[in-house]
Amino acid sequence: MTDDGARKASGSETRKRTVILQARFSADEAAAVRAEADRAGTTVGALIRSAVLSAEPPRAARRPTVNHKAVARVLGELGRVADAFRAAAGAADPDRTHALIDAATRDLSELRTVCFEALGREP
After folding, report:
1. Phi and psi of 98, rounded to 5°?
2. Residue 65: which of 110, 21, 118 has the closest Cα?
3. Mean pLDDT of the chain
4. How many CA atoms lie less than 13 Å away from 106 in the CB half-sphere?
5. For the whole model, what pTM was predicted?
6. How far apart are the two ends of the chain, measured CA to CA in Å?
7. Which of 7, 41, 110, 118 is found 20 to 30 A from 66 (Cα to Cα)?
8. Cβ distance 41 to 62 under 8 Å?
9. Are 7 and 1 in contact (CB under 8 A)?
10. What distance in Å separates the CA atoms of residue 116 and residue 123, rounded to the nearest whole number?
11. What's the longest Cα–Cα distance across the chain?
């Protein structure tokens, strides 16, 4: 709603691209097009428009590549594993497991740093 009480149109109601064009692809071709869109970090529609019209896809159409999604997922899992190591370190005999847990924690820290670098962020 706006300040005057009128309903604001949804994104689908304000689209400028209203004409739908269709093309048939084999399963292999469709997979290749989707993979290329993922590599480019864009939608299939934006990839096809940019290829056919020799234009850059709009910035808003870009989305994280599959690799970025996977790295972000791994980063989240690393946090859970690190928590588990900390809990194990607190419950274990420190004389026997201290060196192993320290080594594992260092490895997790290095993996975390690599994941942040892959995402283009600071750890």
Report:
1. -55, -50
2. 118
3. 76
4. 6
5. 0.41
6. 40
7. 110
8. yes
9. yes
10. 6
11. 70
Short-list 87, 44, 85, 75, CA closest to 62: 44
- Reading the block at residue 94, the tokens are 């420190």
Q: What is the DSSP string of the chain?
A: --TTSPPPPPGGGS-S----------HHHHHHHHHHHHHHTS-HHHHHHHHHHT-PPPGGG----HHHHHHHHHHHHHHHHHHHHHHHHHHS-HHHHHHHHHHHHHHHHHHHHHHHHHTT---
Q: Which amino acid is at 3?
A: D
CA 64, chain centre distance (Å): 4
Tell me the torsion sign for CA atoms 53, 56, 59, 62.
positive
Residue-wise pLDDT for 32-43, tens only, equals 998 888 777 788
Say what angle helices 66-91 and 94-118 make with each other, to 10 degrees. Answer: 160
Segment 65-74, tens digit of pLDDT: 657 777 778 8
